[in-house]
Amino acid sequence: MGRLTGKVAIVTGGARGQGRSHAIHMADEGADIIVIDIGEDIASNRYPLATREDLDETARLVEKAGRRVVAAQVDVRDRIGLKKVVDDAVAELGGLHIVVANAGICPLGNDVPVQGFVDAFDVDFIGVVNTVHVALAHLNAFGAIVVTGSVAGLVPQAGGVNGQGGLQGPGGDGYGLAKKMIRDYTRSLALTLGPQQIRINAVHPTNVDTDMLQNPSMYQTFRPDLPQPTRGDAEVTFPFMQAMPIPYIEPADISHAVVYLASDESRYVTGQQLFVDAGASLKLGL
Prior knowledge:
Blueprint: E1 8-12, H1 17-28, E2 32-37, H2 52-64, E3 69-73, H3 79-93, E4 98-101, H4 114-136, E5 144-148, H5 151-154, H6 169-193, E6 199-205, H7 216-222, H8 231-237, H9 251-262, E7 273-276, H10 280-283
Parallel strand pairs: 1-2, 1-4, 2-3, 4-5, 5-6, 6-7
């Protein structure tokens, strides 16, 4: 406890799933939190996104941990709106030390329109860039940036995550491109920010037990042999990704890595790609 005492952290996509878990874990370690989420659906994305009520619940849980919180509903694709939210929140909380660029969508399906590519890429890469770049004006030496990547996104689309093809459709293509670019982006920016002693690293999870995984489009990706696969059907093949025989990991498993990369314990760790994946990257040859 207390590894982040006195620090302020931004978490995007923080209304539920990995983002909520990261916010709570960092609050438990002493950080005040700026939690950001779109709080509404994106049309090309087939599963429902988090709501304003979800965002408020994350804020309540941070306060329950005894920390200050600013919860803001804004789209990470909107750099102007995002900048205002970040500037105002930093002024209210008195600084910024940690950025967790976590917001993401994965609109799968061969019937997803081309807009699905645009939306996935814009949220998953442009949204990361927007978050990091508006935050840079507030970060000083020993600041830490953590970006959420993806093992599945790093797999070549021709190879696939289920042995039978890549992430499906235009949205899957946009998602995969965004996650591949995050790898190079974090490496390059680490060199740029190194002289200022600001660190940036990426965390690449395998399947995570969140709404992004547990939805009909993802079930279809893992069970293309069935017309309408259920969660139970998909869980037969979820373990294919991992070297360890598990279907998925929990959000807390990534949060532990995020807290480490945000803390002074990793003060000389930068430009790294940390796989929290039960051996999936090894099995898939990444």
